[in-house]
């Protein structure tokens, strides 16, 4: 049995619920066991480190301290030192905090001073922080994955999209290449999919720019989708909740902004693994994506269930101040149809 501590992060129970559902579906066939870190908190995502360094690192390091405390064999984890983060932003933050607390001792002292207020301490280097795909490719192994395939994804053309936060800066030298990593490509091929050459595999999806600079975000999303489409991909596979949300949830707005008509579904790599392992689409959260994967998956004989749309939530009378969205022509400029393709 491969046993690890799991840092799920905030998105796995909300916007990336399908990621967690599909992870749960592939655990048993691969003999994986994850024990969730008790009382974990948000990692601060991408912005907090740019606002207030010590509180931001302390927020992240609290999770490392809790995980280290939980690694004691007496606590039932079997002494594992490995923390697995399925979310790329969470993985990067945890790995970054662990690295810089060693690299910059003064930072470690200040962070531990903050942690001491909650009765916690963390010795940098105690844990091994890894992403889920790293575990699947290098611990479980591609041969083991291949042996569990009962419904090969033959005929499905996939653009493997790793995103920008996973292969860089790579503090522990885990990835095959920083610009053109092959881990996701190799995993998709082990499932029987046809992997297209996708040079933008590690380009940024825009992150939270959809909220603070939509015009910039839409262009970044357009580049990714347009290139996948032009190269013949039927869908994109990703390892990151932020990437999946941006490409899926904002693709329609991007189309409206540029006057395009792309329809490029994006699924988590674990959802495709689940399909190849013979699980039903509804068990894997397939069908809830906004850009439907129905047409793409029909190429491999998979029928995507029709999911009834939930009623829109009532808007609160008050909320956080947000900048107005830039819709087509909303900034006084003409639609950028000339940027298409």
Proportion of residues in extended strands: 5-15%
Largest sheet: 4 strands, parallel
Strand order of the largest sheet: 2-1-3-4
Q: What overall geometry do the principal axes of the alpha carbons give?
A: globular
Name the helix and strand elements from N-terminus to C-terminus, one letter apiece. Answer: EHEHEHHEHEHEHHEHHEHH
- Distance N to C terminus: 48 Å
Oligomer: single chain
CATH topology of the largest domain: Rossmann fold
User: Treating each run of at least 4 consecutive H or I residues as one helix, how many helices?
Assistant: 12
CATH class of the largest domain: Alpha Beta
Q: Report mean pLDDT, rounded to a whole number.
A: 90
Radius of gyration: 21 Å
- Number of extended strands: 8
In total, the number of domains comes to 2
Helix/strand class: alpha/beta
Instruction: Indicate the low-confidence ranges by residue numbers.
Output: 310-316, 319-341
Task: Give the proportion of residues in helices.
Answer: 25-40%
CATH architecture of the largest domain: 3-Layer(aba) Sandwich
């Amino acid at each position: 049995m491969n046993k690890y501590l799991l840092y799920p992060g905030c998105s796995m129970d909300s916007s990336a619920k399908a990621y967690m559902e599909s992870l749960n579906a592939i655990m048993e066939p691969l003999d994986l066991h994850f024990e969730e870190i008790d009382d974990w908190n948000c990692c601060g995502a991408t912005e907090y480190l740019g606002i207030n360094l010590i509180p931001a690192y302390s927020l992240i390091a609290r999770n490392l301290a809790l995980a280290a405390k939980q690694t004691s064999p007496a606590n039932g984890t079997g002494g594992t030192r490995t923390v697995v983060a399925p979310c790329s932003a969470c993985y990067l933050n945890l790995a970054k905090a662990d690295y810089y607390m060693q690299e910059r001792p003064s930072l470690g002292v200040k962070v531990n001073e903050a942690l001491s207020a909650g009765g916690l301490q963390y010795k940098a280097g105690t844990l091994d922080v890894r992403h889920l795909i790293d575990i699947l490719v290098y611990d479980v192994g591609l041969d083991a994955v291949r042996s569990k395939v009962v419904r090969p994804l033959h005929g499905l053309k996939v653009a493997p999209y790793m995103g920008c936060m996973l292969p860089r800066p790579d503090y522990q030298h885990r990835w095959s290449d920083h610009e053109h990593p092959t881990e996701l490509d190799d995993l998709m091929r082990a499932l029987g999919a046809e992997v297209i050459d996708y040079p933008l595999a590690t380009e940024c999806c825009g992150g939270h720019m959809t909220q603070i600079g939509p015009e910039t975000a839409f262009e970044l999303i357009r580049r990714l989708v347009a290139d996948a489409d032009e190269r013949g991909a039927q869908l994109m596979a990703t390892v990151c909740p932020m990437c999946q949300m941006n490409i899926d949830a904002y693709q329609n707005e991007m189309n409206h902004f540029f006057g395009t008509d792309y329809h490029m579904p994006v699924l988590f790599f674990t959802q495709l693994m689940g399909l190849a392992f013979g699980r039903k689409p509804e068990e894997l959260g397939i069908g809830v994506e906004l850009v439907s994967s129905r047409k793409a998956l029909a190429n491999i004989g998979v029928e995507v269930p029709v999911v009834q749309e939930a009623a829109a939530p009532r808007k609160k009378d008050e909320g956080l101040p947000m900048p107005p969205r830039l819709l087509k022509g909303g900034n006084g400029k003409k639609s950028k149809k000339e940027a298409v393709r």
